[in-house]
Amino acid sequence: MKTTPLAAFILSFILLLSGCATSYDTEKSFWSFGEGFDVVQIADDSWQISFVGNDMTDRALARKYVLRKSAEIVQAHGYPYFALTTEQNHRDAVGNDTLGFGHKDWGYGLGKVENETSVIVEVTGLQDKESMQTTKVYDAAYLIDHLTW
After folding, report:
1. Cα angle value 133/44/73 (rounded, 5°)
2. DSSP for 45-105, written as a single string
3. How far is the C-alpha of 119 from the C-alpha of 108, rounded, in Å?
4. Secretion signal: which residues (predicted)?
5. Which of 7, 24, 27, 111 could cross-link with 98 by S-S, CB 3.0 to 4.6 Å?
6. Distance CA 91, CA 104 (A)
7. Residues 132, 135, 136, CA angle at the centre, nearest 5°?
């Protein structure tokens, strides 16, 4: 079978992308294999933000992504500050793809287990820092200007 240079380039590009951390601008969809962001507004001033990253996205990077996304959302809705009212950050083993055959409880196959990082937060937009005294209040503009990865 003859391989064209374009086909070789496309295959190399796909393999290269599969080894990268999930990027910040990824929106959760079928095409992103369920990785990326999902944002749902749950009140006039509150949003649930979830992010799922691939094997190369660690917990710290995923949390930075969620903090930055939170800052962008609240700022776009006129809030200079925000608080994370709930937060869950997990790194789970997933994706045991197995091919094989079996009889009752017995089977044989080949598989691969990958780690997946997920962060889910509820974000509340605030007009001033003093309105939430029981939790940490973040400055949206500061995070947008200073948070890097």
Report:
1. 80
2. TEEEEEEEE-TT--HHHHHHHHHHHHHHHHHHTT-SEEEEEEEEEEEEEE----EEEEETT
3. 34
4. 1-23
5. 111
6. 31
7. 100
End-to-end CA distance of the chain: 43
Percent of the chain that is helix, strand, coil (3-state, to 5): 30, 40, 35
The whole-angstrom separation of Cα 24 and Cα 87 is 19
d(CA 23, CA 53): 8
Residue whose tokens read 């009140």? 43
Q: Map out the domains of the chain as residue ranges.
A: 22-146
Question: What digits encode the pLDDT tens for the residues 116-134?
Answer: 888 999 999 999 988 777 7
Token code pair at residue 38: 């999902």
Long-range contacts of 25-34 (CB under 8 A, 24+ apart): 28/52
The two structure tokens encoding residue 59: 């917990």
pLDDT tens column, 72-116: 999 999 999 999 999 988 776 665 555 555 555 555 556 666 778
Q: For residues 67 and 20, which has the higher predicted lDDT (pLDDT)?
A: 67
